[in-house]
């Protein structure tokens, strides 16, 4: 039997949910490693819905679980039903939904609140010493919950290639150690069993993002 890995999604679409390419890369690489992905999402309303053509919020309302089911091809469970005992690892892809629907990072930064269901799941895997993989913006969840942990969201100096580098500085303010890494690299916090990679925090070709996520997934499966 392959490892059973929980994948937690935050909707469908980079600006208001889970980043679709990152989510797909996680699922593809888990399949390649012979692991079984079990997809979950919270049954809550999105913070808002963004028109991905205009990049502007609309008046529409959508549900995080219903939208995440699009990526999971309908094979998804309510996050409230996740039982850490039957699972070997946890992975949370990025996308603005992590900062909007799984937490309030988008509006409150380091003073954010993590959704109770998401916090409980992260703490349960951590307490069970089971590995957690995070990419793009999702390492901010660990930064908030596990003070002193080591993470990467890429680089900490803003430039055209690293447009979101200020995130690293904010994470440092929470007492974390940020480690600069290229998009194809990962960082492993051995003590906390956290595996992180920058993904779309970097303005990089999509195949490099895919490769970085592959390394993250492989290490998570290896540690499980």
CATH fold assignment: Rossmann fold
- The Cα radius of gyration reads 16 Å
Our measurement of the CA-to-CA distance between the termini, rounded to an integer number of angstroms, reads: 13 Å
The CATH homologous superfamily corresponds to Class I glutamine amidotransferase (GATase) domain
Strands side by side in the biggest sheet? 5-2-1-6-7-11-10
How many β-strand runs?
Answer: 11
Summarize the structure.
InterPro entries: Class_I_gatase-like (IPR029062). This protein is α/β, with parallel strands linked by helices and 224 residues long.
Would you spell out the secondary-structure blueprint of this structure?
Elements: E1 4-8, H1 20-32, E2 36-41, E3 49-51, E4 56-58, H2 64-71, E5 76-78, E6 89-92, H3 96-100, H4 105-108, H5 116-127, E7 132-135, H6 139-145, E8 150-151, H7 166-173, E9 177-178, E10 187-189, E11 194-197, H8 206-223
Parallel strand pairs: 1-2, 1-6, 2-5, 6-7, 7-11, 8-9
Antiparallel strand pairs: 3-4, 10-11
